[in-house]
């Protein structure tokens, strides 16, 4: 299962050198994962209000390959790599045209209202089609 999000680099995303500040790539891929869930019909606010479940990044492995700059149009591709009963592993890529700028493998876990690990909600698994 894959998803693509297009976004533009704004001045506020860049550092003194005029390139995207490294931590902002994490913001970009987070935004892409949120939009992926939204497109699957999963409203994270409703999920939290109704069951107390939230998602948290447990691990991230990232490679910064080329810089993005002010006004670049970027595409963030998100691909489901693997899923277990309690975690999702996503591969995400930030590209400018045909150039890959950044790649990451992100492990996301589900937490209950008390902050303890929990199984992924059935709605999540159903939305992905792996029930």
Keywords:
131 residues, Thiol Ester Dehydrase, Chain A, six-stranded antiparallel sheet, 41% strand
Mind sketching the topology for me?
Layout: E1 2-8, H1 22-39, H2 44-51, E2 54-64, E3 73-83, E4 87-96, E5 99-111, E6 117-118, H3 122-128
Antiparallel strand pairs: 1-3, 2-5, 3-4, 4-5, 5-6
Keywords: Hydrolase
Protein name: Acyl-CoA thioester hydrolase
Family: Belongs to the 4-hydroxybenzoyl-CoA thioesterase family.
Describe what you observe in this structure.
With 131 residues, the protein is an alpha+beta fold. The protein has one domain: Roll (Thiol Ester Dehydrase, Chain A), CATH 3.10.129. It is 25% helix and 41% strand. The protein has three helices and six strands; from the N terminus they run βααβββββα. It has helices spanning 22-39, 44-51, 122-128; strands spanning 2-8, 54-64, 73-83, 87-96, 99-111, 117-118. Strands 1, 2, 3, 4, 5 and 6 form a six-stranded antiparallel sheet that branches. Strand 4 (87-96) and strand 5 (99-111) form a beta hairpin. It is elongated, with a radius of gyration of 16 Å. Keywords: Hydrolase. InterPro entries: 4-hydroxybenzoyl-CoA_TE, HotDog_dom_sf, Tol-Pal_acyl-CoA_thioesterase, YbgC/YbaW. It comes from Paracoccus homiensis. GO terms for molecular function: fatty acyl-CoA hydrolase activity. This is Acyl-CoA thioester hydrolase.
